[in-house]
Amino acid sequence: MSDIERIDQSARRSRALIHNGIVYLSGQVPDDKSTDVADQTRQVLAKVDELLKEAGTDKSRVLSAQIWLRTMDDFAAMNAVWDAWVTPGRTPTRCCGKVELNDPRCRVEIVMTAAL
């Protein structure tokens, strides 16, 4: 049985965990929710970068991303930031949808998995 390494664990969740060479990130949201979706997306992707680094990998190894938006009106602005962030030629699988997020000020939440 493989060990499971948990990163930033609380009673409710781990921000990330590593199992069998895969890093699973929980949903990452912006800290400053007073900004537009582009800035919120940059904040989230910076958190992703930090977690991936802590786990021993980076964005070029992302396998899959789930992006949740408060409104699909934010799709183009989020995509502009996303497109600048991803590693060219190493884009992950991805889905994006509109959901009711737990904080109405939050415009984006992103869940990812990555290989070590």
TrEMBL record:
InterPro entries xref list: RutC-like_sf, YjgF/YER057c/UK114, YoaB-like
Pfam families (alphabetical): Ribonuc_L-PSP
SUPFAM superfamilies, alphabetized: YjgF-like
Protein name: RidA family protein
Species lineage: Bacteria, Pseudomonadati, Pseudomonadota, Betaproteobacteria, Burkholderiales
